[in-house]
Amino acid sequence: MSDPHFLPLVGAPPPERRDAARNRELLLDAAKKLVERCGARSVTMDAVAAAAGVGKGTVFRRFTSREGLMAAVLNHSETEWQALVMGGPAPLGPGAEPWDRLLAFGRSRLDTTLLHAELIREAGRSGGRARGAYSFAATHVRYLLTQLGVTGDIALLAVALLAPLELPIDEPETLDDFPAERVFEGWVDLARRIAGR
């Protein structure tokens, strides 16, 4: 039941019922554990329902499709990563010099992409790297570039810096030719050129 002292905003979605919120967390936790144990490609709606102890219909009502469920799991991990960028320990989080933060960001983003590459692909159109997650990363890179005194088209330079970090998603077969260390070293070279270091 909602708090009678606070009125909902016009156009805002209705508040989530307590049992619905509990089911959502239960399903996300079950899906996350299955993804970690079996890989995203192997996770089915039936398996998530069984692991969460609910009916398959509950999973479909909550997430609409398997892609929607994978997107929700991905969104959960993106939210955790964003919290580290915004308030975690330096150098990824605040408190380090902008250049050190940029390097930590690049390494962390590439590692996160590699860790979740299959999940990102399985989320398909429902998730991919959701627009909000990409927007957060681009905004953070623009902020760091500005802190470094970079001039020019900062928005375009941020896109150029983010592109190599997404390589394992867009072109998974290229990982044989471009292993993670090569991608990161190339990314650092690009970042140095952009930042004039």
TrEMBL record:
Transmembrane segments: none
InterPro entries: Homeodomain-like_sf, HTH-type_TetR-like_transc_reg, HTH_TetR
Alphabetical keyword list: DNA-binding
Keyword match Iron: no
The HTH tetR-type domain, residue ranges: 21-81
Residues in the DNA-binding region annotation: 44-63
Name of a matching Pfam family: TetR_N
Superkingdom of the organism of origin: Bacteria
Record bears the keyword Oxidoreductase: no
Listed name of the protein: TetR/AcrR family transcriptional regulator
